[in-house]
Amino acid sequence: MWAMLLQRCLYGGFTLVFVACVVFWVIEMLPGDFCVNYLGRSMTPINLAQCRAELGLDTPVTTRFVSWWGQLLSGDFGTSLTSRAPVSDTLMPRLANTLLLGGIATVMAIPLAILLGLIAALKRDSWLDSSLSSLVLIAMTVPEFISATLLTLAFAIWLPWFPAITVAGANESLWNLLPGVWLPAITLALVAMAHMMRMTRSNTISVMDSDFMNMARIRQLPRWRLVIRHLAPAALLPTISLAAMTIAWLLGGVVIVEQVFNYPGLGRLMISAINDRDMPVVQACALVLSVTYVLCNLVADMLVIVLNPKLKTA
């Protein structure tokens, strides 16, 4: 088991190094740079050259790549070209806001998805199963920006329970940020919950038809014991990987939702940085999101290995 865990950690480390290299080179290949965007119509060959020399953009790309790796290995994301401040000073408050949004959406989505998936499987082919499956199908197929618009119409205009957009800044306190979190969190939770519920229902039905569940029924065990002690653990084990992917998606796939609700998170920061051609900020955002995906998958692999008796002895 420990060899398998070590192997997963090594794969995760190699993946991060590969992603860091790809992120740097892909962003470097984008057309234009910060100075062209910053100078705009007032750009002349002289002030363009001065701007690039001042910001170090006139050095060869390989030199900047080596310098970027040196800064990255020392825990420094560099300096923002827009604010001229360390990237970490801009990144950390936005990352905290996105973690808050993703955390609330996760707490909403995962327990509810598992519960509804189990209920739908236990009531298979009933009107309740059909209704839940239809709602899940709708939630999966409707794009996030449409879900966000409908929720805004329902809960910000018709029923003025929540603000339509977030007016708090990136460095606001938790108390000031909370009113604007709920609608984006519900939007994210709806999509995440739909995928997890379908997976839970499918796994539960598969386990219900297995031999050990038939033996448990022959022994006439109480229904609650049958579900909680035998059915749920076996059915939810494959769901762990999907839960990890869902958490990673909630943290990394919030770009559209943050834009719709004007939420001051990592997604909005990355979009703004791309528009400004602020490459150090774009690279840092992309790298943080990649690390989130890799870490979530790594934790899921470890949990599956620890919880699966067959893999423990492998």
Strand content: under 5%
Label the structural class: mainly alpha
Question: What composes the largest sheet?
Answer: none
Number of helices: 16
How far do the termini sit from each other? 6 Å
Low-confidence stretches: none
Rg to the nearest angstrom?
24 Å
Envelope shape = globular
Share of helical residues? over 70%
In round numbers, the mean pLDDT is 81
Q: What is the β-strand count?
A: 0
Order of helices and strands: HHHHHHHHHHHHHHHH
Task: Note down, in words, how this protein is organized.
The chain has 314 residues and is an all-alpha fold. The chain has 16 helices and no strands. Helix 5 runs parallel beside helix 15 (279-307). The chain is globular, with a radius of gyration of 24 Å.
In short:
With 314 residues, this protein is mainly alpha-helical. Helices cover 77% and strands 0% of the residues. The model has no long low-confidence stretch (mean pLDDT 81).
Features:
314 residues; mainly alpha; 0% strand
List the helices and strands and how they pair.
Layout: H1 2-28, H2 34-39, H3 45-55, H4 61-73, H5 87-122, H6 127-141, H7 144-158, H8 174-177, H9 182-208, H10 211-218, H11 223-236, H12 239-252, H13 255-261, H14 266-276, H15 279-307, H16 309-312
Helix pairs in contact: 1-15, 5-6, 5-9, 5-12, 5-15, 6-9, 7-9, 7-13, 9-11, 9-12, 12-15, 13-14, 14-15
